[in-house]
Amino acid sequence: MRARRTGLRRNEMRAVLVTAAAVGSVALGPQVAWAEPDVCIAASGAEVARMGTAECRATGTGSVAIARGAGSSASATGGDLNRVRVDGENSFGFTLAGNRNTVTVTGDNSGAFAGRGDNNTATVDGDNSEAAAGIGNNNTATVEGDGSNAIATFGNDNTATVEGDNSFAQAARGDRNTATVDGDGSDAFSGLGNDNTATVNGNGSAADAFAPQGCTAEAIGDGQFAACP
């Protein structure tokens, strides 16, 4: 049983993605009912190829969007040199309002956003997982696992990383915050200030680091909880 849950909950992940998309739309138009394979490629404002139900859009100089899989969508818009690649059924990835943002999604029913700032990276490798990086610069959100979420937003140089299933990491609302989870059913939250670090290594564990000037919380082992200050 999980020791404690605080911070931004899973049911708020979609709200973060909606907030990020408020300056634009991820709708890519009606699906085209063609035969397999489902592939769409767009670059620098032009659609290069489209087959099946995959959808894509890329605007701005040097931006590229690639979607593979039934019902998948990729949108690299809102700036230059943005990269979006989606490989999975009913998965999505998008950028908005920034430059040199990168989104990579591998898995089914997963999604990721990077943008509303520059040099943000969101990566998902798993099913039913999501990642969001942005609303600031140089943020990184990474998920490797199923049913997991990572958020690095509302600040600069924040990093949220999950390796495991049904886990959550959030580094937000400040600068240079880090939240890391290695385990299943675990949570790590850092932010509400600068230079906070929350680390979990175990299953069903949690760590919270919320200090204006920074602190470190480590939960090592299963069923553990750590917090600072």
Please tell me about this protein's structure.
It contains one helix and 21 strands. The chain is mainly beta and 229 residues long. It has an eleven-stranded mixed β-sheet, with no helix packed on it. The longest helix is centred in the N-terminal third of the chain and has 8 residues, at 13-20. Mean pLDDT is 89; it is low at 1-12 and 21-35.
Secondary structure elements and pairings:
Layout: H1 13-20, E1 39-43, E2 46-51, E3 55-58, E4 64-68, E5 73-76, E6 83-87, E7 92-96, E8 102-106, E9 111-115, E10 121-125, E11 130-134, E12 140-144, E13 149-153, E14 159-163, E15 168-172, E16 178-182, E17 187-191, E18 197-201, E19 206-209, E20 216-220, E21 225-228
Parallel strand pairs: 3-5, 4-6, 5-7, 6-8, 7-9, 8-10, 9-11, 10-12, 11-13, 12-14, 13-15, 14-16, 15-17, 16-18, 17-19, 18-20, 19-21
Antiparallel strand pairs: 1-2, 1-4
